[in-house]
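Folding problem:
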Amino acid sequence: MSKKMLLVAVCLLALTGGLALIKFSHFKKMGAADAGIPPLTVTAAPVKADTWEVTINAVGSLAAYQGITVTTESSGIIREIAFEPGSRVQAGDILIKLDTTVLEAQLAAAAARADLARVNAERTRALFASNTSAKADLDSAEAQLKQTQADVESIQASIDQKIVRAPFAGRLGVRQINLGQFIDRGNAIVSLQALDPIYVNFTVPQQRVGEIALGMVVRMTSDALPGEVIEGRVTAINPEVDSASRNARIQATLANANEKLRPGMFANVAAVLPQKDRVLCIPATAVLYAPYGDSVFVIEDQKDATSGKTTQVLRQQFVRLGRTMGDFVAIVDGLKEGQQVVTTGVFKLRNGAAVIIDNKLAPAASLTPKPSDS
């Protein structure tokens, strides 16, 4: 029985040894194959120290410096439309005129009564001066004159209400009335917006309200103006915090001479704080993003122990990322200044691969990129 067990053990050892020899030979061939792989050509950039502005970023909405829907405080038939939709107007320009035929007739009658009252008052003053008229007659004549003059002014005010004027200078919108139409008090006529300057309203969390100050520089970007950055300044800080969102409303004023910015537009806002941060940064394209952790490929010199030749190889390094600015991302932990990292095609690389650096076709990274095809 012991001989059989010994024979089985010897067979198992021989089989295990044979398998190990085959596997070793396979690994040797793989190593030889890897040794024959030519170095990969990559683009690279150094980890560099830089000073970045500190900003509070928010999403905002544009609002007119002054903006209303023009209405009328009197009802009537529209007899004249004195504006063109989309045109600019100055304060006091006539927009529409309503029918005043009846009022003008009433004004003429009131003016005649006022003239008669004035003549009677002058006559009564003369009679009173010659002691041929009582003081009561003079008082009655003076009161009648004032009443008729007030009637004239009242009718004239009603006629003036039939003329709708622009309350301030600005840009008109789409006309909402037609000639000959009857409009009632409060009916919309046209939108009037003062666009230069223009406001951008945004909110910041309550824990950062104390960092915002009047006069602080604000940079605004919008997809309506691709590639453009418009600077303004904080002009108002709401004294109360919204109890539901715990955010405070901030208002900044921007120049808008060409009127490309319009009320209601979406805007990205960055309030620039006075302090600056010292950071280590690399191009964002150098980062291999993954759920288990972000990493980069560091290029290191490796000396062959046999030949003494120095080659450049890759080492995958996990990093902790900070905020981004333009085409760059800040590195909080994992890299040192001056190290070289691969900047393109990192998803195709592997740890320990030999590389050659060639930056002839490397994309230019910028803190303030302006894409030409946006």
Observations:
- The first strand starts at residue 40 and ends at 42.
- The chain has a mean pLDDT of 86.
- The CA atoms of residues 94 and 168 lie 11 Å apart.
- The domain at 56-64+191-276 is CATH 2.40.30.170 (Elongation Factor Tu (Ef-tu); domain 3).
